[in-house]
Structure formats: C-alpha cells, structure tokens
Write a structure and sequence with these properties.
seven-stranded mixed β-sheet, alpha/beta, 6 helices, two-stranded antiparallel sheet, Rossmann fold
Length: 190
C-alpha cells in the first residue's frame, strides 16, 4: 500500500527544507501532495530566498484526504503563514488525534506546533534561534533529528539537517531498507 504525505508551503517557506523533503519522499515512491497555505489561494509561492515553488493544490482541497505524514518546512515568515492557516491547523489536530505522523523542521516546531499546543507532551527540537519558544516536554538541543514515536512526531533543526530529516521520514514510513536504497545513490557521506 502506497504511503501518502502532505507538505505544506507558503510565502517565506525555507526552500531547501521543502524541496529536499518533497524530492526524497518521491524518490521513495511516497505519494506526495504539496499544498499551498496562501490565503489568496495561489499555488505559486515565493520561498524565503526568492525561489518560486508551485504547489499541487491549495490546502483547502486536501481536507478530505488522509495522510500518513504531514510535513511542515520552516523558514520565516513561512512558518508564521502555516501557523495562521486554519485549515492546516485543523488537519494537524486531526492528524495528532488519529496518531498519524507529523514532521516539522527549523522554525516550524516552535512557531507552528508550539503555537497550537501540539507538542507539549513530546520531545522535540527546532532551529537553535527558536529553542526558547519550543513548548515541548523535552527540548533536545544536541540532535539534528528527533523522533518521538510515542507522539508520532519527527522534528529537525534547519536547512543543514534537511537531508537527514527527509531520509528519516522515509525510514519511518517505509523502513530502514528503503531509506538506504534512496540514500545510497545520492552519495551521502557518513
């Protein structure tokens, strides 16, 4: 059975984090939907460094679908736009209640998940500039990727950890063998 993932984007999203996750999950044959969270309903967004990304659909078109994983890239003000999207907030709340995976990187764990009290009982990490805003039971500052299996949560620190984060998402969804099959041809150095 194919796994399904949603990657939410908005103006100001960190492009390395978004594109790396989308690319790596698709290499693993995960069915990835990229959803714009723009209030204007535009599919094209301007990422944090000016790169233009085009979503597959608007987030409002995704509410009736079930996803094995919802991913939140960071970047500012992208994370704030994700935080302020009522449809995404509702989907994240439902995802958590259904005990399905949520993943967030960089500013998103603090700016999005903490703002909506979605990680208060979990262990998590985020970009070091946001450690003080991260309202998690255990804030992990010395690991690039943190997996809290009890809370179906995967968090990571920033653009430099995006590849490790993305491969960990593959491992969680598809297993260690699949993550290795995806990672080896990309010539990752250990």
């Amino acid at each position: 059975m194919s796994k399904r993932a949603l990657v939410a984007i908005a103006d100001g999203t960190e492009e390395i984090e978004a594109v790396t996750v989308i690319d790596v999950l698709r290499r693993a044959a995960v069915d990835v939907s990229v959803a714009s969270c723009q209030l204007t309903r535009e599919l094209q967004i301007k990422a944090s460094r000016g790169v233009k990304l085009v979503a597959d659909s608007h987030i409002d078109e995704c509410v009736d679908y079930s996803f094995d994983l919802i991913v939140l890239p960071g970047g500012m003000p992208g994370a704030e736009h994700l935080r302020d999207c009522p449809t995404l907030t509702s989907m994240l709340t439902c995802q958590q209640k259904a005990e399905r995976w949520i993943a967030a990187i960089c500013a998103a764990p603090a700016v999005v998940l903490s703002a909506h009290d979605l990680i208060t009982d979990a262990k998590a990490t985020c970009h070091p500039a946001f450690f003080q805003q991260l309202k998690a039971k255990q804030v992990v500052t010395d690991m690039p990727v943190v997996v809290d299996e009890d809370h179906f949560l995967i968090t990571s620190q920033g653009p430099g950890t995006a590849m490790a984060f993305a491969l960990r998402l593959v491992e969680i969804l598809m297993g260690e063998k699949k993550a290795s099959q995806v990672g080896q041809p990309m010539v990752l150095l250990n």
